[in-house]
Structures are given as C-alpha cells and as structure tokens.
Amino acid sequence: MSPTKLKILVSIAGVLLLCAIVYLPGYTKYQDLKARAGELRDEIRRLEVLNKDLEGKIARLQTDVSYLEGIVREELGLAKPGEVVYKAKPKAGGQRAAIEE
Known about the structure:
Layout: H1 3-63, H2 65-76, E1 87-90, E2 96-100
Antiparallel strand pairs: 1-2
C-alpha cells in the first residue's frame, strides 16, 4: 500500500473516530429521552383514564342521590335519624366476629 493511501485511510479512520466521540453521547442521550417520552405517554394515558373515571363519579355524585347516600354511608359511616349502625370487628384470622353497636 502506498504512503498516500495509508495517510488517506488513517485520516478517514480518525474522522470516523472523532465523529463517534462527538455524536455518541448525544445519541445515547437522545435514546434515553425517547424512552422517557414513551414512559410519559403511558403515564398520560393512565391518568386520562383515571380522570375520566373520576369525572364519571363526580357526575354521579351530583345527579344520583342513592349513589351519594351509599358513599356517605360506606365511607363516612353516617346513618339516617333513628337508624342504628352495626360494624363487625375482624378476628385475627381475617373473619368477622363481634358485632358492635
């Protein structure tokens, strides 16, 4: 191989090495950001579904009195005047045992 061809070959190899050194960190950063963007898109979809579900619950709470009453009874433990609420205490094994007034 002639010295001129060898110089050209070494120069090309040097340029390729320099390009790899300069562009490789940027490319890996791009790949990381691309993966993160995918994760964020998935999170957005999940939150949109959750938001839709919550909007439905809000609409039911505003329009459906029996639904509202059920939520109030279950989550707040409230009762109508004159009603008695019985709550069962769980046993150590997870079964309900005693009834408390």
